Amino acid sequence: MSKKVLVISSSLRTNSNSEALADAFLKGAREAGHDVDKCSLAGKTINFCHGCLVCNQTLKCVIDDDSRVITDKMRCADVIVFATPVYYYSISGQLKTLLDRANPLYASDYQFRAVYLLASAAESDPETVKGAETAIRGWVDCFEKAELKKTIFAGGVNGTGEINAHIALTEAYEAGKQC
């Protein structure tokens, strides 16, 4: 059964390591016959949440910027994949801001059930990704019909292309095929 898969890449760096993970997941999902869409946060205008909570009644944020389109794509996806570099043991700031702005999804009839985290970091210690995973899990836990299915971590990669031949690329590809 074909699913709508949305991959949100939050790195602002061209050809980043987390972007490579996103592309590997997409390739696997595409080969499995899923309808895939990739959304990069690079170049997007996503302002900070005002905390007004109007979106809980209107299902739409009062701030008119790029987050509205992205949030609508999130609502309609069966699978959401967040790809992020790990900065200071957490997700990128642009991804955190998007998650805050995705608050209209909470009261909506969202479609997504499976969420994946793809993360890369210069630090190779497996504990490096725990803060990023906690951030994503905290968001996912607000959606009772959704589940964080898997976290894939590529540690020890910093410069562009350092992820090439990393086992995490194969893991991301296989997760995409099985999502």
Which tags fit this structure?
179 residues, alpha/beta, five-stranded parallel beta sheet, 20% strand
Name the helicity range: 25-40%
User: What count of helical segments does DSSP give?
Assistant: 6
Structural class: alpha/beta
Q: Which spans have pLDDT < 50 for at least 5 consecutive residues?
A: none
Strand order of the largest sheet: 2-1-3-4-5
Q: What integer is the average pLDDT? A: 97
Shape: globular
Q: Helix and strand string, N-terminal first? A: EHEHHEHEHEH
Q: Mind describing the biggest β-sheet?
A: 5 strands, parallel
Report strand %.
15-25%
Q: Would you count the extended β strands for me?
A: 5
Determine the N-to-C terminus distance: 11 Å
Instruction: Supply Rg.
Output: 15 Å
How would you portray this structure in words?
The protein is of the alpha/beta class and 179 residues long. It is 34% helix and 20% strand. Strands 2-1-3-4-5 form a five-stranded parallel β-sheet, sandwiched between helices. Helix 1 packs parallel to helix 6. The termini are close together. The model has no long low-confidence stretch (mean pLDDT 97).
Task: Write a brief structural summary.
By secondary structure, this protein is of the alpha/beta class.
